[in-house]
Amino acid sequence: MNRLGVPPLKLLHAADLHIDSPLHGLEKYPDAPVDMIRAATRRATENLVALTLDEQVDAVLLAGDVYDGDWRGYDTGLFFQRQLGILGDAGIRVYLVSGNHDAQSQITKNLRLPNNVRKFDTHQSQSIEDPHVGLIVHGQGYARRDVMENLAADYPQAAPGMFNVGLLHTALTGRAGHTKYAPCSVEELVSRGYGYWALGHVHTREVVSEEPHIVFPGNIQGRSIRETGPKGCTLVTVTDKGSVAVEHRDLDVVRWAHLRVDAASADDLDDVCELVRTQLAAERDQSDGRLVAARVTVTGRSAAHAELWRERERLTVEVRSIAVDLGEVWVEKVGPGTSPLDVGTGDGANDITDMIAGLLRTAKELGTDEDAVRRFVEKDPLWSKLSGDVRGEDRLNSSSAEWCAQLLSEASDLLVSMLQEGAR
């Protein structure tokens, strides 16, 4: 139970800040707001700090992957240090575990953290108590990137007379698109008797359990079209009787959206553009002043199918022009994914349509595993023959999830285009 006779205990739970994530490849898109998108993880972190102060929370729980990897320079560490210092000036403690991206083995530079920060050991579980607020946090960080053992197995049973929190970077028994690091079961976490489990690693918000609460807050800022929708943190309120309430709070400054525009009612490209305008405007209006970074895919069986594929470049330019006209919208990519009203029989059209559907389905399945494309690329004999000046962080970078996703997307588009051209 929490301490009696005092106001509720308030905690802010966040994970996967990925501060200064490089976001490769943005420069190739026309009119891309590169600086704004690259700064978005910092601005979202500042929003997190502002929310913490506004809500007057007792402590902040950061469940791993504060950084995207090793710092390019000390400025990344200095930025985070300054944000932690703001919380320290307000008397707010921060509890922090490292994850796979900012594991001890991944970070070669180091700065001393402010006195209000408690960073957990990476070789064994650790319990840190704050008797002033009746809180005890149990956690363990990552010593190396690929932690495949069950860290939760070493976490102790709940301490009596305190509100117990488990802080852990894990994919539990597995989540789509995320490597199964630090695997453990929900039943195992429940058995510890904690009042709340603050998890990280999975970038999609999920309340896994409510008795007790086991929560993935998701990342605080979407970094690509693979991470759409609102992003933020979880505000946790514990009453003096020990009951727990959780509430999602948005922190993102750029909101990614994949709009699938059904062109079934469209007769031509102009009709499609009006449908796109309507959906882009609705997405902008729902984003509360944030920049919308959108991918537009035109779908469905449509009389406009042939024109859309024939005039793909014009379609892209028209949609980007609509985004400029609407304001607060940037279109990352535009693509037709339609089929003709009558696919025909006996002339191979059905085969082509089925082949395209199968290709896109395979690409989607590959794209849910951040390591699958990397393994596929690196096992190709050509990869090992590439010189060091061709491969690297700012070049062909198989260790970058964003680069691999972009490669898969572009390969899929090229093959679909070739199949469509061959069918005509």
TrEMBL record:
Please give the Pfam families that the UniProt record associates with this protein.
Metallophos
Which keywords, in A-to-Z order, does the entry hold?
A: Exonuclease, Hydrolase, Nuclease
What GO molecular-function term can you cite, just one?
exonuclease activity
Domain Calcineurin-like phosphoesterase positions:
10-204
CDD domains (UniProt xref): MPP_Mre11_N
- Which superkingdom, per the lineage? Bacteria
Q: Which InterPro entries match?
A: Calcineurin-like_PHP, DNA_Repair-Maintenance_Comp, Metallo-depent_PP-like, Mre11_N
* Family matches, as PANTHER family: COMPONENT OF ATP-DEPENDENT DSDNA EXONUCLEASE (PTHR30337), PHOSPHOESTERASE (PTHR30337:SF7)
* Protein name (record): DNA repair exonuclease
Recorded source organism is Catenulispora pinistramenti
